[in-house]
Structures are given as C-alpha cells and as structure tokens.
Amino acid sequence: MQEPRCESPEEGEVMTEMRRVTAIRNGTVIDHIPSGYAMQVIRILGINTDRATPVSFVMNVPSDKIGRKDVLKIEDRELDQEDLDRLALISPAASIAIIRNHAVAEKMKVELADDLLNIARCSFSNCITKNNHEPLPQRMRVISRDPLEVRCYYCGCGQEIDELIENII
Amino acid sequence: MGNLVTMDDLSNDDIIAVLDDAERLVPVAKGEIILPLLQGKVLANMFFENSTRTRMSFETAMKRLGGSVLNFSSVGTSVSKGETLYDTMQMIDGYADVVAIRHPRQGAAQYSADAVRIPILNAGDGAGNHPTQTMLDLFTIRQAHESLDGLNVVLVGDLRYGRTAHSLSHALVRFGASLTLVSPTSLKMPVEIVSDLRSHGADVTETESLNEQITRADVIYMTRIQKERFPDEEEYAKVAGIYKIEVTDLVGAKKGMIVMHPLPRVDEIAPSVDSTEFARYFQQAFNGVPTRMSLLCRSLGVKVPKKVK
Questions:
Q1: Which residues of A touch B114 (CB under 8 A)?
Q2: What are the helix (H) ranges across chain B?
C-alpha cells in the first residue's frame, strides 16, 4: 500500500496518528482537532447522519502543537470551503490533508473569517433572527480569535463556544 | 447612508456636530421659529412596541421641520397576520424617506438597516441599543456641564436589560468618563459591554450600593427596573424598588450634579426631587425634540443652517 510522503516533523506526526487506524484511499484527514472535539466535528460536517461514509478517528493522542489532539479520517469525501468555515469555529489550528489514491494530494489550513454567514444560529432567545421565516442570513462577527470571541452581527450578543457548536447550521 | 443603529455609527466629531445642530434647533423645537428644512419628507414611525416619549418626540421633531409622519403600530396590521419584519420594511421602503424603528427583538434595527435603502434610526431594539436616547442624554449632560469630557457618571438600576444604559455607557467612555455601574447582581451590565468599555481604557466600577456614589457623581442616571423584560414575576419582585432617590439622599451632592432618567419612572426618584436644582429628567424629555430634529436632518443629508432664524 502506498503511504503519503512525509516531508516535515508535523507531517510525520500526522502519519503516526494515521497509522493508528486504517489508511484511506480517497478522502480527508483532519489533524490537530482539540482533544475531545472529534465527535463535534463529525456532527458539524453532517457525517453523523450520513451512514454511507466510513469514518475513523483517534482521540486524545499527544501533539507537539496543541498538547493533546484528535485526528479524524473521512473516506470518499473532500471538504469544501463551507466545511472549512464551520470547522474553523471548533478547530482553528486544524490541518487538512486531502487524500487521493492513498497519497496526500492537497493540504489546507482552516481560517476563521471575520464575518460568518449562515454558519451558526444566534443562541440568544430574543434575537431578531429567532423570528420565524425571516429571510436575511444568520450572521456572526469574529471579535477575537485567541481567545475565540464571536458575537451575533444583529443583536451583538456573545456566543459561548459550546452553544455555537450546538447551533451550527 | 445615515443609519443610526448603535453609537458606533457616530464618531466623536459626529456626536458633537449633531449636538451643535440640536442646540441651534431649540427655538424651532419650541415652535418659536418656523424652519421647514424637511418639507416634503416623510418619516415612518415603526413602533412594534409601546412608546410615549420616543414616538411623540420623533413625530414632533419631524413636524416642526415641516415634514410628515406615518405612524405604524404592529397591532391590527399585516404583522399580526404573520408578516416578516423584512417584508414590512420592504414595504415601508417605498412609502417613506426615513424610518424610526422600535422593536421588542434585539437586533431588529440592524436587520432592518440591511433590508432597506432608506436610513434607519434605532428607537430601541429589545434590550440592545437606544442611540437616539443617548444623543438626547448627551445633549442634556452637555447643557449642564458645558462639556462631555471626563465626567463621573453613575448608572443605576436595570443595566442588564436597560438599552438606554447600554448605548449611553458606550458613548460616555469615548469622552473619557469614569463609570460606576450600580445594579443588583441579577441586573448587572452584560459582560460583553463591560469588556467593550474597558477595552476603551475606561475606568469602570461595578457595585450594588448607590448611596456612597452620590457625593462624587457629576451625573446620576437612574433607570426603571423593567418588569416587561423579566421572564418571571418572582425574579422581578426580588429587585423591584431596590434603588430610590429621595431629596435627603442628595445632601452632599456636588454643585452642578444632575439627576437624569429616561422615563417613565415608577418609584426610582421621589417627586420631591423634581423641584430641586438636580432634577433634569423633564428637560431631558424635551431635549428629545431638538436632538431628533438634528438626527433626522443628518440622516436625510439636510444641513442645519449655522444661524437659525
């Protein structure tokens, strides 16, 4: 079986973790997910309801970069920009490898945009966006990345990270 | 576009310019001078929530400047049939030149500003912001102290749901005010607002006790504990009537100190305070007219003459 080439210590780390579970032929490897968040990533990418997609992951493994981390492998699916925008909320340090024919075909970094359109619903019960049938998009502003601070563009309310994940569209 | 959704829509220079214009418009607001600067223009007063002072002072301001007013109430209109705010605002976009909107939902003013082309003036959105009230509050403070710079301001009462306190505190710290926030724990200023105020380098103190603040204050800004904002009656009963100012409490107050209130009051300020040199709340209510005249002119791109005759 052909393995992805390892060119740096970080990639070496990825490879070590990838070997903990079965290698994939085509799909996506998401590395450097904060420890314990793999299930949330599965949920926000909608994989939890897709019974046709094989997924494997390791949790709580050591990482030089973020202490402990989770690593997720999704077969036969390549993440798009919308997926990356969602992922950035949970896992701003994640590194993504797109695997084609057992080799790393593309590497991507997530980047949290300043303005998040239709990524998550506001958690505040009296926000105007809670009105049924209002057509304008859900919209959040990123005030700070470290620590993460996100507010609703309309009502200005701060969003707790767990609520944000819960409210991802 | 001349939207005013939060105080962030005005720079400090804009604020001073609006207050200067408002000052020159006082004789027009009193009906002593006729100045039809907004003749032919239409204001839509879109009040999805009850209002007395704000709605009436907007209407007076528009009419004193020769404009006309459409008054909207959500009762008995298409809103009660389930129309979205977006659709309602799309409709009004074709009927009026400027909108004053009050809505029980927080964020409704920003949402409306994104939905229409005409300027939006936020006349209160849930517990969010009330920037036109802030402008008349600043006008009142400047009238009393001749400047907005470096004042000790004590904000009292419902700072959690009190939108007037939210907008006013944002504006005051930009002029170097020291803020003392007096409220019961359950009604403290939202953490994101306190964080914003401190990020401006503001000196912000939070306390539950009012009495010890009175002697050092330049402004005491009382607010009503708003029963309608509480999810349940029991929580309201725990804090109702917690802060009251009587004449005797004002012994030792600084000369020139003023007591303000956005009104309506319940029992926060005893009627005996009304006749003291400290009381400014009725003057404050009148100041809504020249200030909103000035804001309407700004929104519509109409210059207020340097000499109003």
A1: 136
A2: 12-24, 26-29, 53-64, 85-93, 108-115, 131-145, 163-173, 191-199, 233-239, 281-299
Q: Would you tell me the crossing angle of helices B12-24 and B131-145 to the nearest 10 degrees?
A: 70
Query: Which candidate from A133, A134, A155 shows the least CB-CB separation from B106?
Result: A155
- Indicate the pTM of the whole model: 0.88
Write the ipTM: 0.91
Is a pLDDT exceeding 90 seen at residue B82? no
Q: Which of B214, B207, B199 shows the shortest CA–CA distance to B273?
A: B214
Helix, strand, coil percentages for chain B (3-state, nearest 5): 45, 15, 40
Burial of A47 per CB tally in 10 Å (0-12, 13-18, 19+):
middle
**Residue A162: CB atoms within 10 Å:** 10
Residues 6+ apart with CB under 8 A from B35: B25, B28, B64, B65, B66, B305, B308
Take residue B262 and report the two structure tokens written for it: 């956005």
Which residues on A lie below 8 Å from B127 (Cβ)?
126
Per-position b or e across B103-117, b if 16+ CB within 10 A of its CB: bbbbbbbbbbbbbbe
- Out of B105, B129, B192, the one facing A127 most closely (by C-beta) is B105
